[in-house]
Amino acid sequence: MSTDPALAAAPAAFDEQPHEYDAILLLGFGGPEGQDDVIPFLRNVTRGRGIPDERLEEVAHHYRHFGGVSPINRQNHELRDALAAELDRRGIDLPVLWGNRNWDPTLPDALREAEAHGFRRILALATSAYASYSGCKQYQENIDDALAETGLAGRLTIDKARPYFDHPGFIAPFVEALRGGIAELREKIPGLDPAQDVRILFATHSVPNSYTGDFGPHPEALGGAGAPADTVARSGVPGAAAGIGAYEAQHLAVSAAVAEAAGEGAAWDLVYQSRSGPAHQPWLEPDINDFIAEIPKGSAKAIVIVPVGFVSDHMEVLWDLDTEAIETAGEHGLEVVRVPTPGTHPAYVSGLIDLVLERRDGTPVAERASELALGPWFDVCGEGCCDTEERQAAVRAHRARAMQAADA
Ligand SMILES: CC1=C(CCC(=O)O)c2cc3nc(cc4[nH]c(cc5[nH]c(cc1n2)c(C)c5CCC(=O)O)c(CCC(=O)O)c4C)C(CCC(=O)O)=C3C
Ligand SMILES: [Fe+2]
């Protein structure tokens, strides 16, 4: 175990203490709302990496194509309203704040709003279901940065709900969606036999290999109450023992469960999309377009794309799947249906509220809702949760800086 003082101060992996929360914080990615926003938004996304505006303009084209507007902010607005309505329905008196990583309303704005209301402890729900640097730990860094920037560190405590890939409320909408997708193909192709004719492609965001976490027993979890004795053995995921990352293991487990429940025997694969970054850097593969191109001719009539890595139909879905992957499928003579993400599905919204209650009440890990042997995942990222060594070193440095900023 590390003796780094910054890490030693980090809390344990599972939080089974009850807490009084004053509010929920919906933690989103953010997106541009007009052509003038596109480059400033992309500067925010790539901040600290010194990417020139000419290069950003190259990745701007899909936003440009849709008038510079990403649907993501509207979708998060709708999710916020749905969460508030569900809280109301259950008689739970908790306001829902909203702050994004890359665009208005920003996270520091949300924290200032919390301060104005006199809130002291908040639970953040990220719009990302899986462990990885981008989807989990980076949101934690965003929280630390926003606390330092607003000077609220020490006054305001922000907990983050666990990655919820395994939660029944996240999985149920995909099961329903896949069922609907296959039904749609049946209407298009008379006499369709899914087990023979259909390939299911579970799609998620590719990330650099170094972002995926170390899929092994969690060092802190091993000593904690209710912790899995052997995370790898519990997973039941093929390849887990071979040292794949947590990100891939979680996606494989979700995909297997969704295919089992609604795939009607069709073959399935996990594929990746939206790769960026320099060509020499290894990212998760196969790319969805390469994968579709290599499906042997005549071996399938149709594909169903299930965007299992995303919680709403934002730009990565509308462009990389609905535009590019669908075009690739057409070029290869395959019928194709892309099914919806959870969005504001009642099961998903209700599941997010369950995650809030789980932390509020300090529900023991063994009693937490989880549809998969791989879950429930950790409340608090520790060493090896979302990162490889390279990233952990950066996180330790980052934590030390944030703590210094908080002390100053
Ligand atoms: C794992 C993951 C998720 C899922 C989890 C989560 O939701 O958090 C996600 C979501 C999203 N990614 C999004 C958009 C972008 N992602 C980029 C860049 C990157 N994403 C990465 C990973 C992820 N991204 C990575 C490793 C990079 C490389 C640079 C870096 O290490 O940061 C870039 C820069 C341009 C480019 O490089 O292509 C853009 C514009 C939007 C908004 C869509 C909209 O506007 O509707 C959303 C929801
Ligand atoms: Fe994590």
From TrEMBL:
<keyword id="KW-0408">Iron</keyword>
<feature type="binding site">
    <location>
        <position position="205"/>
    </location>
    <ligand>
        <name>Fe(2+)</name>
    </ligand>
</feature>
<feature type="binding site">
    <location>
        <position position="70"/>
    </location>
    <ligand>
        <name>Fe-coproporphyrin III</name>
    </ligand>
</feature>
<keyword id="KW-0963">Cytoplasm</keyword>
<comment type="function">
    <text>Involved in coproporphyrin-dependent heme b biosynthesis. Catalyzes the insertion of ferrous iron into coproporphyrin III to form Fe-coproporphyrin III.</text>
</comment>
<keyword id="KW-0350">Heme biosynthesis</keyword>
<comment type="similarity">
    <text>Belongs to the ferrochelatase family.</text>
</comment>
<dbReference type="Pfam" id="PF00762">
    <property type="entry name" value="Ferrochelatase"/>
</dbReference>
<protein>
    <recommendedName>
        <fullName>Coproporphyrin III ferrochelatase</fullName>
        <ecNumber>4.99.1.9</ecNumber>
    </recommendedName>
</protein>
<dbReference type="InterPro" id="IPR033659">
    <property type="entry name" value="Ferrochelatase_N"/>
</dbReference>
<comment type="pathway">
    <text>Porphyrin-containing compound metabolism; protoheme biosynthesis.</text>
</comment>
<keyword id="KW-0479">Metal-binding</keyword>
<feature type="binding site">
    <location>
        <position position="316"/>
    </location>
    <ligand>
        <name>Fe(2+)</name>
    </ligand>
</feature>
<keyword id="KW-0627">Porphyrin biosynthesis</keyword>
<keyword id="KW-0456">Lyase</keyword>
<feature type="binding site">
    <location>
        <position position="139"/>
    </location>
    <ligand>
        <name>Fe-coproporphyrin III</name>
    </ligand>
</feature>
<dbReference type="InterPro" id="IPR033644">
    <property type="entry name" value="Ferrochelatase_C"/>
</dbReference>
<dbReference type="InterPro" id="IPR001015">
    <property type="entry name" value="Ferrochelatase"/>
</dbReference>
